[in-house]
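Here we describe the complex-level prediction in full. Unlike the single-chain runs in Section 2.1, the two entities below were treated as one system.
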Amino acid sequence: MAGYVSIEADDRLEEQPDLEFKTFEAPATNEQHGVGRANRGYIADAQRSTSFWSLDYYQTFFDVDTKTVLFRCINTLNPLSPTYTSAHLNPAPDLYGPFWTLTTLIFALFITSSLAHSIVSYLSDDPVSYDFALLSVAMGLVYTYGIGVPVILWGVLRYGGIIGTGGEGWGLVEAVGVWGYAMFVWIPVSILCIIPIRLVRWILTGVAFGLSGYFLVRNVYPVLASADQKAVRLLIVIVAALHAALALVFKVMFFSYYIIREDDPKKPISTSRSFPR
Amino acid sequence: MDQLAPPSGSPLPGVSGNIGSSSTTAGPTREMLGGVRVETRFGGVDTLDEPITATIGRDLLSIFNKLVQVLYPIRKGAGREVLKDWDLWGPLILCLLLGIMLSVNAPPNQALGVFTSVIMIVCLGSLVVTVQAKLLGGRVSFFQGLCVLGYCVAPLNIAALVSCFVRVIYVRAPVAILAWAWCIWASVNFLDGTKIEAQRILLAVYPLLLFYFILAWMILIQ
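The structure predicted for the assembly as a whole is:
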């Protein structure tokens, strides 16, 4: 069995020890990107112009540090903050926060609703049973709302000619970022909603709806208002209606376990199981 | 195997091949055959005519070695080299075991759903966490990350096994929390080597916390 023969051309490579790597990082391109993108030098050797399909393209949207993400999350809870509408865009929008906010919310909804369920079952002397379907329901609901709605809204605005072609002002990443960060308030609320008192849960859901809805409106309305046609502003009603529907679905599906004693005469037996209603 | 020898004249001193599980790679031998210079290599193990038990045994041993290395990552140095030779068999076995153990204990009408969601969470979770580490600028090989995260599920398997037999919540909760902490410790040890900056190491660790916590939670409430 004959193996490969080493050919002469390969030997020539080894005879040139002084190969130098050329740097492609011209200062001009850095300044060009410094306007829109965070350029803090974490990814020093990242190529600046990469295609949509490569992983490097998305690295610019994950160029954040811990403090920035935490500040952006907390910022959405405080409408009086001076940076209320600008913190998540400055210096550049990121995708880390929105994605993990949504994912955390899914798991928080599942964990807290199953915890609330077991507490309630324990208090009302019911055998505990679990509903793993809630996990996939939460996943579908949250990802559809948190990613689908901004993408559709952006598509409508973009192809209706309301926002510019270059993504200046309001790009896809900004849209997803607004929705993602707006959902942050639901994470602490879903934990607090373990408290099995009907009134407290309604108040908490209302507060979360108000905070996240206000954040959405404050961010989306200026974009809609910049259109020439006045009718575009009516889209904000659709956004608000969708948000209210989501809040109601959260309340009904995940925050609705109540203590029901078997010996409570006022409740009919058929609804006395602590299933979500 | 000799067909795969690189065409370069002499191998670079720092580069060593790793074929099969052989650690002692003999240097290439050269000879002239009919005026043609021929280079042959011998990997140290002749895998052609060995019994199949030896082949499977070697693979299982390599899985076991990696498991020990991932779960007890104190031994630095030579031990870390084991992980360079990644495989996905170990993660697959661990993931299936976890899914089976959880679904056996689930109510019959939910067993399939539990199995599916465990497999999905483990697969997608480790995929997302690895991509995430790359996006945050970590120097990590993609499949190596998948391999390590898959092996890190092993403590949760122990917790699932324990809670198969113990129904008392006061035993199951500490066991699940301990297993969770062990997973985190093992996988953070791996992330340590990916050179993510200190300001954002928390961003890389947080998805891990979430990923293993949801699995630990499913074990706890089954």
